[in-house]
Amino acid sequence: MADPRLTPARPDLAAKFLEGQIKAARFVEGEEFEISQPLAPLREAPSADATLLTQALKGERVTIYERNREGFAWGQLKSDGYVGWLPDRALAKPADEPSHKITALRTFGFPGPSIKLPPAETLVMGALIKVMRENGPFALTREGWYVPRQHVNGIDAHVDDFVTVAERFVGTPYLWGGKTSFGIDCSGLVQVSLNAAGIQCPRDSDMQQDSIDGLLGPVDSGNLQRGDLIFWKGHVAIARDGESIVHANAHHMATVIENTREAVARINADGYEITAIKRLG
């Protein structure tokens, strides 16, 4: 059965490429847009109070299959394939391909080449921008924002150690469906960190567990190396070394560094045992 999180299909409407594979009242080709706002919530339903599934970042491309009269659009993100409802106001016709990405946890886009000016926008790690030229210590974007150059890097630049990225999020509030330094969840932390290292990664923890081949067996948290991923039902953590992990979790309502054995014991006491430990190839 197709995963509804990754399949743009409803009983009344589905993507054209699924015709003949599933049943739907109508099939449409879809139209490509880009996320024009710094951050856009992708929700379970076309409502501002619907469950937040994930977040789309500026510059990300999305295929839209429906736009309703209430200001929402239903589509599929190109980066990780997630399907849901976005605010229509966050969409724009695709322009130039992005040339750079934000590598700071968050930064400002100033309306002119001075940090004394009130920021015109706030951008988060992973946001994609088109840099038109450099202006002293700034990168000037297509929108006319002046972004500090030390917070920007080329689209193909990657970190060597994804765990260092996860560690930078320590103290970030926990947010179900979040994937930025304003709020992040466990699988969002893994996805953002791996993406920063140039490693494609699905959005949810069960998808992540299924997509990584390197199973360590038997399941034993006492034989961990930096970068190992520890999975429970509905949760994932990143090993920093043999004794500590970094993870976003609802117990602390934050991203924290924690002793591995203490964390495993606490989670076990809540009725959840480790389901897998994976090591990236």
Distance between the termini: 29 Å
Structural class: mainly beta
Q: In percent terms, what proportion of residues is strand? A: 25-35%
Mean pLDDT: 95
* Largest sheet data: 5 strands, antiparallel
Physical arrangement of strands within the biggest beta sheet: 8-7-6-3-9
Say how many strands there are. 24
How would you spell out the order of helices and strands? EEEEEEEEEEEEEEEEEHEEHHEEEEHE
Regions with little confidence, pLDDT below 50 for 5+ residues: none
Number of helical regions: 4
Overall geometric form: globular
Radius of gyration: 20 Å
Question: Your description of this structure?
Answer:
- There is one protein chain.
- The two termini are 29 Å apart.
- α1 crosses α2 (186-196).
- The protein contains four helices and 24 strands.
- Helices cover 12% and strands 34% of the residues.
- It is mainly beta and 281 residues long.
- A five-stranded antiparallel β-sheet has the order 8-7-6-3-9, with no helix packed on it.
